[in-house]
Automatic annotation (TrEMBL):
Short name of any one Pfam family annotated for the protein: Mito_carr
Solcar repeats: 12-99, 107-227, 237-326
UniProt source species: Seriola lalandi dorsalis
Name of this protein: Mitochondrial glutamate carrier 1
Annotated localization: Mitochondrion inner membrane
Keyword line: Membrane, Mitochondrion, Mitochondrion inner membrane, Repeat, Transmembrane, Transmembrane helix, Transport
Family matches, as InterPro entries: MCP, MCP_dom_sf, MCP_transmembrane, Mito_Solute_Carrier
Length: 339
């Protein structure tokens, strides 16, 4: 059993929790985005067409071919949308933990997992379009590099219908360059050609990844975090323990759902390189990956994902617990408790 910490504060300060979650997401993503880019490119490359040997090889080649800021392709859209995404995820978990602990004042492990499940379901409203746009921008460099390695092979557009805007990021000339295309242009083109559903391509796979992640992460973090309390009378936890708890819980949860993340990334990649197949849903994607690449393909980028998620959630939990939102809204320990 795990007591729900300060449930009345969670109920009264939900706007502050949303602010804390948004700031936490922005700080965390800024720190780990290059590793996330390497993860996306490693997951999307197929057997026999491997441009990158590992994470460091990917980052070094990215800097050489695209410059330092090439490692931050797609960061703008991610920073824009990660604010509401992390705000929803972290605040929703607190909200559902509070609601589920109203009767007894305590949370069983099952209720903690249920709260995490609900938080994961809420966040996909933002996560799916964010990941959709981010992946297109992150993967543009990999496709251009593939064409430089194999100049005689022309990358094929497998989205259904040719679009000048979406094609611009993937030049098919003998010496392709990574052309600049913005998230706004991709969004407009998707809305024009596919409607709102175009932005939610891969929704099933995103749910399949984010719900199990939250189910594993939040209860595990809560229990690890509780171990760092000074005493039952003094439940405060040092900031470094919050960081370590977030890192440990995040890395374990990330590796556990890595196969789902591979499927999601493949489904959301609109552009394919030479001889890269398209998929008709989650089941077809899983079946084709198993048949053509083997079970090991589902762990592509797993180490990168763990390296992304561990510090991301470690930093996020520290920033989240600092209480910037409470400060901005004028809360103090006195008026929180007396409200």
């Amino acid at each position: 059993m795990t007591p729900s910490p300060l449930p009345h504060i969670q109920a009264l300060c939900l706007p502050a929790k949303l602010i804390n979650g948004g700031i936490a997401g922005m700080v965390g993503v800024t720190c780990v985005f290059p590793i996330d880019l390497a993860k996306t490119r490693l997951q999307n490359q197929r057997s026999g067409q491997q441009l990158y040997k590992n994470m460091m090889d990917c980052l070094i080649k990215t800097v050489r071919s695209e410059g330092y800021f090439g490692m931050y392709r797609g960061a703008a859209v991610n920073l824009t949308l990660v604010t509401p995404e992390k705000a929803i995820k972290l605040a929703a978990n607190d909200f559902f933990r509070h609601q589920l602990s109203k009767d007894s004042g305590k949370l069983t492990v099952f209720k903690e997992m249920l709260a995490g499940c609900c938080a994961g379901m809420c966040q996909v409203i933002i996560t799916t379009p964010m990941e959709m746009l981010k992946i297109q921008l992150q993967d543009a460099g990999r496709l251009a590099a593939q064409q430089r390695v194999m100049p005689s092979v022309v990358a094929t557009l497998k989205m259904g219908g040719t679009s000048a805007v979406l094609s611009r990021a993937y030049n098919t000339s003998p010496a392709p360059q990574v052309m600049r295309v913005s998230a706004t242009e991709i969004t407009r083109e998707l809305l024009r050609t596919k409607g709102v559903t175009g932005l939610y391509r891969g929704l099933g796979a995103t749910l399949m990844r984010d719900i199990p992640f939250s189910v594993v992460y939040f209860p595990l973090f809560a229990h690890l975090h509780q171990l760092g309390q000074h005493s039952s009378e003094d439940p405060s936890v040092p900031f470094y323990w919050s960081f370590m708890s977030g890192c440990a819980a995040g890395s374990i949860a990330a590796v556990a759902v890595s196969p789902c993340d591979v499927v999601k990334t493949r489904l959301q990649s609109l552009k394919k390189g030479a001889n890269e197949e398209t998929y008709n849903g989650v089941v077809d994607c899983v079946r084709n990956i198993l048949r053509k690449e083997g079970p090991g393909a589902f762990l592509k980028g797993a180490s990168c994902r763990a390296l992304v998620i561990a510090p991301l959630f470690g930093i996020a939990q520290v920033v989240y617990s600092v209480g910037v939102g409470e400060f901005l809204l004028g809360y103090t320990p006195h008026n929180i408790y007396s409200a």
